[in-house]
Amino acid sequence: MTEDGRYNTGTAPRLCATSHGNPKVGSVGISSFGDIRRFDSIDSTNRYLLDQARDGAPHGVVAVADHQTAGRGRLGRAWEAPPGSNLLVSVLLRVDLPAGSRHLASAAVALAATEAIGAETEVVPGIKWPNDLLAPDGRKLAGVLAEADLSGPPEHGFPPIVVGIGINVGWPLSDDDLPEELVGSATSLYQETGGIVDRSALLHALLAALDARVAPLSTSEGRAGQASELRQRCVTIGRRVRVELAGGQLEGTATDVTDEGHLVVATADGVKTVVAGDVVHLRPAG
Ligand code: BT5
Asked: What is the pLDDT of residues 143-157, one digit of tens each?
């Protein structure tokens, strides 16, 4: 960060975008995700697509922003990204996904993002359960936020799940850019590679990879396949973890991810399956 509290964005690349509230509608020729709405500035691309979904927007609408004024993380937390530096994108999914397997929708986006990053850079991110992409050094490169709205009328199709991802592309340029609380825990593709990654190319690669992952979510074999990929990518498995749950916490060793995408933790009180929670990777004992 600069001394006056603003972000240093250096020469980060810019997405093509339009003014607040008036999305520029575009297409990248990917079958599921042809309707791409681009914003110069918006409060949150997830908020926008949830509202669109309530009005009946179909599967496949994409919102991408150059800047979010109220970018959100999970549990009311904020997602930081200065204007014009990172990839901030949400997709509206309406898929035939059993309620117990909804985590696989965000896993599909996380897996697609690891593929896209692998296609555009040499970085091989790991997935920290439930939703973070970590650089090999363990710092957070990207975060995924899935929000479902189950209240809509059936004529709009399967209930909407909006999955947003923020990928740190050009920011932070260095640790000096970061607010103190993110130093040591956040990184960017720029920091990892020393190069500028084109955000439009990354978006295209992400949507192409996700396109191939959507149909399989509707079959049990397809879901098992994605869960298996998640298992391979999941750097939480094998780690000692503390899991913060809505009603308490547990500690143990993460041993597996189920076919529904849930985390299995071996604790002193037996094996627990975690559907939703915040995970802290602990240092190995001793
Ligand atoms: C997430 O939440 O990681 C989900 C982030 C999702 C952001 C996307 S951007 C497009 C779409 N529209 C939205 O409004 N949101 C989505 P969580 O696991 O709760 O992590 C949030 C925490 O990560 C914060 O409390 C910070 O500690 C940290 N953090 C914030 N910004 C960060 C960044 N750019 N890089 C790394 N860590 C960050």
From this structure: 999 999 888 788 888
